[in-house]
Amino acid sequence: MRRTVVHAPPKPVTVAYKASASEESVSISEFVQRRCPSLARDFVPAWWLFNGHLQTLYSVLGDFTKTDNVIYQRTYLRLQDGGTLGLDFTGPDDTQCEADAPMIVVLHGLTGGSYESYVRAILAPACSPLSEQGLGYRAVVVNFRGCAGVPLTSPQLYSAGHTDDIRQALFYISQRYPTAPLVGVGFSLGANVMTRYVAEEGELSRLRSLCILGCPWDLQANTDKLTSTYLGHHVYSKGMGRNLVNLLRRHVDTLSTYSDRGVAEAAAATMNMVRPTIEAFDSHFTRIAGGSSPPWPFATAGDYYAYASSHKVLGNVQIPFLAINSVDDPVVREIPVGSERSGWVTIAVTPQGGHLGWFEANDKWFEVKRWIRTPVMEWLKATAEDLICVTPSWRPLYTDKDGYIREVNGNAGLGCKEVEGGGIIVGAEPQRDVLAGL
């Protein structure tokens, strides 16, 4: 059985959309069915990538340097707490598209960045001109603190539960492109962050819609299942743990200067670990320095997982929301298809595809392409162009005397401003010491 199962919300909302020369109102379930027809077609994995392990390992070890090449223009944002984000923009410039052209906002996976092949697999076609069968959209990848060459300038990294960084990045993007509909795409850990962000914001979300791929949902349950098998424990969990330690190693000199909250001590202790699992890394470092205080630091990794999990907040989502997971994903084994969720949330589950893989055969013998790009492109076009949305009542933005962009009557601790640096980023260039694809 290779058919994708689309789990519609128990009580779907009614939405209006543009249908030929008129406007129609249908349930969100019917909207997904009509506007994302690829979800109803069979996904047939490449014959030599016939299970979730092979799909996942190819995502990590495959050579994608010559496919889906994307050139970015980086902008650095300084946050109110001293942290730095790297925003990588791509697509047509302001002279080549209308001011209200859609903007795709992307969050990458665990230790990735804009260079990831799964990110480029979406942005390369989405940002191509209509004449080349693209969407002609603009896009920006928000690189987490310390990832993809972004300097670490604060006593914290990032985590599955810290949403203020994407919140502040959206201040900047919204002010820079005030009339552009913002549509979100999140991968793996970034999917968890985006889910929590839109749930926390509700009707005030600056994202018009969201599509998430490979979300880890219930962090404790999926961590427990991951480490319950030999491959899960020794290959995937330790592989992700090694990635995090190698990422931390790049910034340990900076972190060693911060004595607040025990960050320097936590960094030093973590650096002494040999091939830790992801849970061991989270226990030593993420629970202490994965976000701002409060609620960080947490007493245990389990407390952090309980706080950061996204499956429990789906009832608060108030925008069109499509999640896609795979049954044979060796990293994410628990998918909340039976959980309580709002009428906006659709969860599609493919029988195969691994973790952020979804590779199907291309024209040549061993050449593959990502099946996932088709449903994601359909969703982006449907929600950015066809869906008729109520004008959101966002909190207005202003720039303070120090140049920080803030929300009127918003959180006083949040604000961001553009700082020097950045430049051209070649998306296909791999990162040293960090495995891609996760």
Automatic annotation (TrEMBL):
Transmembrane segments: none annotated. Keywords: Hydrolase. The keyword Hydrolase applies. The active site is at S188, D329, H355. One of its GO terms (molecular function) is acetylesterase activity. It comes from the Eukaryota. GO terms for biological process: medium-chain fatty acid biosynthetic process; medium-chain fatty acid catabolic process. The keyword Repressor does not apply. InterPro entries: AB_hydrolase_1, AB_hydrolase_4_sf, AB_hydrolase_fold, ABHD4. SUPFAM superfamilies: alpha/beta-Hydrolases. Residues 102-333 form the AB hydrolase-1 domain. Pfam families: Abhydrolase_1 (PF00561). Belongs to the AB hydrolase superfamily. AB hydrolase 4 family. PANTHER family: ABHYDROLASE DOMAIN-CONTAINING PROTEIN, ALPHA_BETA HYDROLASE 1, ISOFORM A. This is AB-hydrolase YheT. It comes from Coniophora puteana (strain RWD-64-598).
